Records
---
Amino acid sequence: MLNELDELWRESYESSRIYKERLKIYKERLKLFHDKTITQKTFEPNQKVLLYSSQLHIFPGKLRSRWTGSFIVKVVYSYEAVEIENPDTGKSFKVNGQRLKPFLEHFDNQEDSEDLVHPLYQDPPSK
């Protein structure tokens, strides 16, 4: 009886150890996958950026943009802290760099477009 209990205890201990090893491997793989998907944003002084406004979660709207501004980067600090300035008011403040994204100012929308010709609607030929 004691041998059976001792054997059950060893088996449970061994299965627990195997589970912990597999869990550790899973977490390492998940971290590698997550780190691959993160893009590093680098900002430079005098660059225009947009600021993410988290207050708009209170008033949901499908078509409402959560990005405000165009702000100008003044100083980039360590650990992704960025000081930005509102060009309209001249007020500057620090934000987390993860709340910013570059402002694409020079967007060319000059694709080759053709004028559409109005089709002539005619009655089908009668038989």
---
Amino acid sequence: MMSSLKLALVMVTVVSLDMGLSTITKEAMSRGMNQFVFVVYSNLFALPCLVLFCFLFHRRKPPPPLTPSILCRIFVLGLISCSIQMSMYVGIRYSSPTLASAMSDLVPAFTFVLAIITRGLLLNICLYKGLLGLLFIMYLFRG
């Protein structure tokens, strides 16, 4: 019971911080800050936090070797992440933080749809679980 309460508290905190970031971003953009500069500042701010977490929560076993395939995947992931950040900040510049919050609520729906497309998840609407997932997606996209 207590662990589910902690998880709910963490989830509410993350959503609140995301909405706060959207509001601060909108205010900074409306005062003339360039979105490229904002992406650099936000990534520089995140770097010490990530390094601290790496030292606090390190693995007991040695990490796997870095192969060229893994390095290429890390590069592509970083490129996609930066592109998504830029798109989000440009979108916030032309709209409102409320719309950004509503769009971030669609992330589970897009993840579910991508899992079905890439066959990571098989949707069987004959089963109760599959039908419930389909109804959940329709509800999320409906708004």
---
Amino acid sequence: MATGEVINKPPSLPPYPEMILEAIEALNEENGSNKSSISKYIESTYGGLPQGHKVLLNVHLAKMRDSGVLLFWKNNYTKRDPNAPPRRGRGRPPKPKEPLPPGIVLPPPRPRGRPPKGPNDPPRPPKVKASGGSGRRGRPRKMARPTGGFGEAPRSTGKAAPSGRPRGRPPKVKPVLTEISA
């Protein structure tokens, strides 16, 4: 910057929450004021607004709505009534806690997680591996099929089944073609 230049700063603006509350009070609409009417009022009252005025307005309106300063209903913002009861959160309300009789002191709540081992605790015996398999994980392998099958007597070699019928599905019977002479 050169020493002879003078920067034209815009006049200092009040904070956005103050401007928003002033706009809502001045507009004094029955069902509250929407975002565009609040923005127009601020623009007309305070001339030199920053470039991101709409974004700043949205951010501050959302903060004020979440903190409970403003009520948002049907796309309109209104000031919260100081005599109104506080709004309840969503879901089922918690059960009321019964007061404890005097003289009873509650122990501190247990911490989360597994309790630490004590120095005097006996060491745990090592885990014994189950000798049910070959030490592999996952699905066991198929066993080789015995020659006689499961639960059957061993077969004699080369002979058909005792009923005289071969194993499996019988072949499809094809109709016999006959010649018709004319």
---
Amino acid sequence: MAAVGDVEKMIAVGLVWGATNALMKKGALIWDKRLESSSLPEQSPSDQRPLSSRIITSLRLCFKLILTWQYSLPLSVNLAASVTFFSILGHAPISLAVPVTNATTFATTAVVGILLGEETRVGFALLYFLSFYIYISWILLRQKKLKMVIQPYTYVSGLYLFLKHS
């Protein structure tokens, strides 16, 4: 059974993951632009260079990515949220923790992506997020933590149940 405050922690982890996912994508694009202007040779599947040379080139590319603060800073925050998530999993049911964090992550990634200027299909994001609320309502009803107020099989009622009892 989830402890008091676990759902809030799950949502917080999802918010952090979603924001850092979008920021890491932006940082990776910055790294790509720097890479295009650098003198590092690109690797291809038909690369005939010795294995040691290809490994050194790969390590050099990874090092340049980590040195790109626009990527490495969000990555560090993302990994810290992962530690928190695994801590939550120690005493919360996985059937609740995974959908809550994943849906929150998905929605937050879409919102932050839009704020960063990415093209996002907002309709699909909203549909996913609303169906998440229905699923959580169903779990809470099954665990008898909610009283049946209205039918939980519509999007509006699922959202209502979740917001009223969370």
